[in-house]
Amino acid sequence: MTTGKDSSPKTLAEALVNLRGELQNPSRDAVNPWYGSKYAKLEGIITEVRQLLFDNKLTFIQNIVSENNTIMAQTILIHASGEERTIDGPRVVIEKFTPQTVGAVTTYAKRYSLLAALGVEPDEARKLLDHAVQPYRAGFRIVVFDRTARLQN
User: Fold this and answer.
1) Whose CA is closest to 114, among 149, 82, 89, 92?
2) Most buried of 21, 53, 72, 148 (most Cβ within 10 A)?
3) Torsions phi, psi for 76 (to 5 deg)
4) How far apart, in whole angstroms, are the C-alpha atoms of residue 63 and residue 60?
5) pLDDT tens-digit series, residues 85-122
6) What are the residues facing 58 on neighbouring strands?
7) 138 neighbors 82 (Cβ within 8 angstroms)
8) What per-residue confidence (pLDDT) applies to 10?
9) End-to-end alpha carbon distance in the chain
10) H/E element holding 11?
11) Does residue 53 register a pLDDT over 90?
12) Model-level pTM?
């Protein structure tokens, strides 16, 4: 590893290797009201990783990309050296446009994009898969295939 006197990582790759050694799966601090499965809320994830990112001279920003009735969050990991890496999260198709649906889908996309960028697991994965094809009580459902999550009426 190439580090200075302060032993902080000097490159994005070094910082990500260090970060992966320190990260743990986030606390599952919320319960899905429709399925009862536990998941990590976006604000909780950010709180848990903020100091580790800082210690490794990293930060992130997220862009929301909206195209053809879909929303995708791009997470851009930025190192103090100026290096950056963009990770595309899952693309979520919205078939029923309401402010609540767009807000929920945006938060969902940001959460999963950030977690993918950090390489950590956000939920009780088996329960998520079991319920992924069942209708949401809110009038839509998420169908996950490849890198796409699809919201359906």
Assistant:
1) 89
2) 72
3) -110, 115
4) 10
5) 999 988 888 878 888 888 888 998 999 899 999 988 76
6) 79
7) no
8) 94
9) 51
10) none
11) yes
12) 0.75
